[in-house]
Structures are given as structure tokens and as C-alpha cells.
Amino acid sequence: MYKRLAFNTASNLGTLFLKLGITFVMTPILITNMGNYDYGLWEMVGAVIGYMGMLDLGIRPAVSRFASRFIAQKDEAALTTLYATAWFFLLVVGVFIAIILSVAGFFFADLIAPADSSDNLRYTWFLLILAAQLLITFPSYTAESYLEAYQEYYLKNNVTIFNSIIGSTIIFVFITPENALLLLAGVNAVGTCSKYLFLVWLMQYRRKFLRLRRTYFSLAQLKELLRFSVKTLVQGVATKIENATDTLVIGFIMGPASVPLYSIPANLVSYIRLISYNFTHVFMPYFSSLGALNDQKKIQEVYLTGSKFTVAPCLILAIGAYALGADFLALWVGEEIANSANSFLGVLIAFLVLPLFNPMASRYLTAIDKHGFFAKWQPIVALANLGLSVLLIYPLGILGVALGSLIPALVFQPILLSICCKNLGFSPVVYLHAALLPWLVPCVGMLIAIFFAKEFFLINNYLVLLMVAASATLVFILFGWLFALTVNERSQLAAILKRKKHQG
User: Fold this and answer.
1) For the whole prediction, is pTM greater than 0.90?
2) Using CA atoms, how far apart are residues 376 and 202, in angstroms rounded to an integer?
3) CB under 8 Å to 488, separation ≥6 — which residues?
4) Among residues 67, 79, 68, which one has the least CA distance to residue 289?
């Protein structure tokens, strides 16, 4: 099982790094051709679509969780019923969302167009493209949840890689200021729909017992899914408010043209959280399987070890983003965005990285059906986030929005750690000692390395930036090997590296 977890995690990270590379190349091109308004609109509409995505009522993670249990129990009949029930429910949701976006496109497109625009038709088409995309992809999410339950992440990742390369190439070759918004929306829609339709076909081709027939739809199964997923829904709504509202607050109060000043640094830093997400994504079905087997000792071992090794790369990226982020932004997208980011980058990084100090929390609590904690607390945190962001944006601008996100998180995360440790059966002190404190010396060493490097080198090109970042990362790895890893962990890693070398 560890081998499969490692393979799936590597596949997830490979896909993520490819997307990061595409983002690095394409973002300046998109900004140049779309302008600040349309680029900001794309970010705002993406946030709104994210909220609409929660109309699945949290079914998707629930499907993954229940399917993992049925797979462990080898219950094909239950898997078939679950698959059909989730599919038809999500189809209804997809139709509902498509109708809303279609009506908005035909009758209210002028609301999202610039005040001086004489071409509102493209905004109509923009919304209609999104409607078609969600109509197709919503029910198809069921197949993706099943791939996760079967620990076959690499299959969807391979399709994602192919689509990302083809789509970005098409945009790179054909984009112009006149077609940028519709080309981006159209290519994204075609790529996403083709991916999910292929996954549906593949899932049913590989598992012949899965059938999409209305006779397999079970109201009792749907009720059981909703009983579990309603807590996930509340958690999802709160998380969306916490993570996506900043863009909307800035867009509505300061205007869409101000959104890129925040969203580009935020999207860049958010890759740190996405890396952690991809490290931990495969663990929720695994925790669910271990829970079904009542193997608490194994759960504790996996939680502590997985957390320790997930925290390390996130710390490297967070330190690098804090110390070198403004320099990178200046080289990448220009001084305007870099200078704006200087005022809030540290606060933004703290907000995005703070949950990563306990990266397995959501996966574990969801797997053992204890995620009701999120349903109780995260709405309070999210509303505090929203209220503080709106309150602080007037005197402090974008910095106020970042502070409005960070302050509630500083209260919530220690409480979350306490709840997780209580369910795991050890104290927060044990967790801190095992997963976080070992990385203190490597973090300090990396910060000192970057500080001295910037004293001697002027970061005026990517090569110098890369050299400084790589040198500081090597300092972290060296100090981590010496001070963070136990003798047993060093031996295990050495054995893995030796085995890979022989295989190569």
C-alpha cells in the first residue's frame, strides 16, 4: 500500500508541477492579451463557479469515502448502486447550474461587461461556454471520485497532463487581445469535458459491473450520502468563503482591474497549499480503509510520518516565497504587481501556510466521519474572514483583505490540531515534537542562507534567482538530514534512493 500511495502522490505532484510550469509561461501572455479587467473577471467568475460547484452538497468526497469502504469489503453491488445514485443526482445539479448560467448569459451579460464596452456578445458566449462545461462535467465527477477510491490517480493525471499541454499550446499560438477571453474559456471547457467523459468511459470499461441505469438509483443510498456529505458541504462552503472571497471582495469594492494585484501573488503562493493537498489527497481513502479494519496504531503511524514529510517541502516553498517572492514577481509580471505584493505577501503566505502545519487534519477527520467539527467551526471562521476583510479593506486596501483572512486562522488552527490529536489518541505536544519541531533548524538555516546570498548577489534575472533558491534549498535539505530525520528515517531514505539507483 505504501508503494501505491507514493506512486499516486508522485503522479499528483508531477501533474501539479506541470501546471505550475504552464502558469509560469502563460500568465504574462494572458495578462498582456486580456488586460487587467478581463483577467480579473476570469478570476472573479472562477470564484463564483467555485461557489456553484458546492451545489453538489458535498457528494464527491462522500462518494470517494463510501466507495473506498465498499472496495475494501469487495461489495460490487453496493459499488454499482453508489455509482448510479451519485451520477444521476449530480446530473440534476449540472442541469440546474447550466440553466442559471444560460439565463445569465442571455439576459444579464451586460452586468459583467466593462461600463464602456460595446461588445457584450462575447460576455454572453463566455457564460454559455461555462454553462455547457458544467452540464457535462458535474455528473462525470462520479468517475473521478471512484478513481480516487481505487487509488488510480495516475489515470486522471495522465489525461490532465495531455489536455494541459494541448490546451496551453493552442492558446499560446492563437491568442489575441480580441479573442483572449473566449479562447481561454473555450479551450478550458473542451479540455475539461473531454477529460471527464473519457474518465467515465474508462471507469465503466475497466469495471464492467458499474452501470448507469436508473434502476440502480437508490433513494436510501442518496440519503446516506447526504447524511455524510452535509457536513462536508458546510465545510466546503466555509472553505470557499475563506479562500475565494478575497478575490470577490477586492473585485466588488476596488474593481476587477485591481484583482490581478492580489490574485496573481495569491495564486502563486497557493501552489504551496496545492502541493500539500496533493501530498495528502491519497490518504483520505487510505485512512478510511484503515478505519474499516480498526487499525488505530497504523493510523497514528501514518498520520505522524505523513505529516512530517508533507510539512518539509511546504516549509521550503513558504520560506522561498517570503524571501524571494517579490523578486520573482518583478521578473515575471512586472514591478507594479511586485510592489503591490510587497505590502501583503508575508501575511498572505502566513494565511496559506498555517493549515499546512497540520496537513492531514481534513483527510483524517473526513475518513473517520468526524468532520462535523468543520461544519460547526469553519462557518464561524469564514464569516469572520469575510467580515474582517470587508472592514479592513477600506483603511488598509489589499493588506486589510490579507489580514482579514489570517486573523481567524490563527484562532482556528490550534483548536483543529487539538481535536485531531484527541481522536488519534496522543497529545498535541507529541505531534509538534514529531512533525514540526524537527524542521526548526533547517528553516533557520535556509533563511540565513537566503539573507547572505541577497547581500552578495543582485537578483536581476531568473538564473541568479534560481541559483539562490537552489542553494538555500540544499541548505535546508542538508540541515534536515542532519537534525530533522531520525537514524531510522535516514536509513529508510538511503535504502529507497539506493534501490532507485539500481533500478535506473
Assistant:
1) no
2) 38
3) none
4) 68
